[in-house]
Design a protein that fits this description.
Elements lengths: L6 H34 L16 H30 L6 E8 L2 E5 L5 E2 L2 E4 L3 E8 L4 E5 L4 E5 L5 E6 L4 E7 L12 E6 L1 H9 L9 H8 L25 E6 L2 E6 L2 H9 L5 E2 L16 H11 L12 H7 L25 E6 L2 E6 L2 H9 L5 E2 L14 H12 L2
Parallel strand pairs: 1-5, 4-10
Antiparallel strand pairs: 1-2, 2-3, 5-8, 6-7, 6-9, 9-10, 11-12, 11-13, 14-15, 14-16
Helix pairs in contact: 1-2, 4-6, 5-6, 7-9, 8-9
The structure holds heme C (2 copies) and copper (II) ion.
């Protein structure tokens, strides 16, 4: 990988090469001299000691001072580069990285959560590290960064990715069943891609359906949404507004309501808004379905409150680490699989008794919030209580699981 612009990797590599280089020179040099003397002064040639050297101030000083200097340069070089690894550049972007059994979750300042770490290229990124349960260790070999996450303690690393691409993230803690499965990646995006990614309204938010239809059908080409008149009347604040319309050659006054709007879209030529030409095309059911028509009308009447869409269950399972222990393909290494969970009977152990029951919403709620009062038979009580989730998130997960 291109090491330019990869400051953390450069720092570590330089020190490694420096220390390793000196060690190699000393190893080879000392070994060579030893071998040379062993051969030269072998017993068959010199059965008795011949040297009468009393000592040499010069040599003794040299081989004391020189190694001290070399070792001190190693320390100095290592220390200054280590300090560089701990000093965050001022313009660094911050992401919170949380480890849990057995997955990573990355949380952005706007609250967005992802199971992969998305970052822009050539920008310093600070990852604040936390653990909610046991020791884990955040390790990205490509950037030569590794740091333990300790429950109850905050730590951090930083890096700057030199090229767009995907770089492995591992958990380097090996004392437990699942750390080795905690693999994910740093997804380095170009600046434009990252911009697009940040703006992409993920599952939450997004445009109301009515507005989407208005845009898709080209209504906005003739109608404004801000009060200004165009080829057609503005569609701003229509609810309860009086209108002069021409019907059968007569001008009458009406108040805009749902029925009127539906007629205005399905059969625009029948009632013309006074002062406008009959230019609006009719939109039949083949063009705009009844549902979409309703969405448009609701939107125009201001009935649509833009609320974030309900969080999607499958995404919640991923970003909250549930899929780190639970599979959806039927395999059961650490925990029961989610496959078919909505339809099955489960045998649980509670208060020392075994009970078999049908999985339903109530059972799932208990399994999520008090996982250790009823233990699924055959599994260890290792499930963490999901009490850090909001009520809506819990509902969304339960609904999603029941459909599995
Ligand atoms: C080619 C231009 C054009 C397009 C495209 C168009 N309209 Fe119109 N629309 C008009 C004109 C002109 C009028 C006024 C004359 C009339 O009532 O037919 C009008 C009237 C309306 C009215 C009645 C407004 C009022 O204040 O009385 C509604 C509602 C409306 N349009 C909705 C829509 C919707 C929804 C779409 C897209 C599905 C759409 N229009 C597409 C030109 C257009
Ligand atoms: C550390 C691993 C781990 C994590 C993380 C985890 N679980 Fe579990 N889960 C288990 C184990 C082990 C069991 C079975 C033992 C028990 O009942 O406590 C279980 C049981 C369950 C059950 C009951 C399953 C059944 O077959 O009756 C549900 C539902 C469940 N988990 C949902 C979740 C959800 C949702 C999340 C994420 C918010 C999650 N789990 C996170 C380990 C985990
Ligand atoms: Cu781990």
């Amino acid at each position: 990988m291109n090491q330019l612009n990869n400051p953390t990797a450069q720092a570590v590599d330089n020190v490694l090469i420096y220390i390793f280089g000196f060690s190699l020179i000393l190893l080879l040099g000392i070994t060579a001299v030893s071998v040379y003397f062993v051969v030269k002064y072998r017993r068959s040639k010199y059965p008795e000691p011949t040297s009468d050297v009393e000592g040499s101030w010069f040599l003794e000083t040299l081989w004391t001072v020189l190694p001290i200097i070399i070792v001190l340069t190693m320390f100095w070089y290592g220390w200054t580069n280590y300090v560089g690894l701990r000093e965050i550049p001022a313009d660094a972007m911050e992401v919170k990285g949380t480890a849990r059994m057995w997955s990573w979750v990355f949380e952005y300042p706007d609250g967005r959560k992802e199971s992969k770490l998305y970052v822009p290229v050539n920008k310093p990124v600070k990852v604040e590290l936390y653990s909610v349960d046991v020791l884990h260790s955040f390790f990205v070999p490509a950037f030569r960064i590794k740091r333990d996450t300790v429950p109850g303690m905050e730590s951090y690393v930083w890096f700057q990715a030199p090229e767009a691409g995907s770089y492995d993230i591992f958990c380097a803690e090996y004392c437990g069943v699942g750390h080795a499965d905690m693999t994910t990646s740093v997804e380095v995006l170009s600046e434009e891609d990252f911009e697009r990614w940040s703006q992409a309204s993920d599952e939450s938010g997004g445009e109301p359906r009515g507005l989407v239809v208005l845009n898709e059908q080209g209504c906005i080409g003739c109608h404004s949404l801000d009060g200004s008149e165009n080829i057609g009347p503005t569609l701003f604040e229509l609810s309860g507004t009086p209108r002069q319309i021409e019907r059968d050659g007569q001008t009458i006054e009406i108040t805009i309501d749902e029925d009127y709007l539906q007629r205005a879209i399905r059969d625009p030529a029948v009632e013309l808004t006074k002062g406008f030409d009959p230019m609006m095309p009719a939109y039949d059911e083949g063009t705009i379905s009844n549902d979409d028509l309703q969405a448009v009308v609701d939107y125009l009447l201001g009935k649509v409150v833009v609320t974030p869409a309900a969080p999607s269950g499958s995404r919640l399972l991923e970003v909250n680490g549930c899929t780190g222990c639970h599979s959806s393909d039927g395999s059961e290494e650490i925990a029961p699989t989610f496959k078919g969970i909505g339809q099955r009977e489960v045998t649980i152990e509670a208060d020392g008794k075994e009970i078999t029951l049908q999985v339903d919403a109530e059972y799932l709620r208990r399994a999520l919030l008090e996982p250790n009062t009823e233990i699924v038979k055959g599994f260890a009580p290792m499930m963490p209580a999901a009490d850090y989730l909001s009520a809506e998130e819990i509902d969304a997960i339960i609904e999603h699981l029941l459909q599995q």
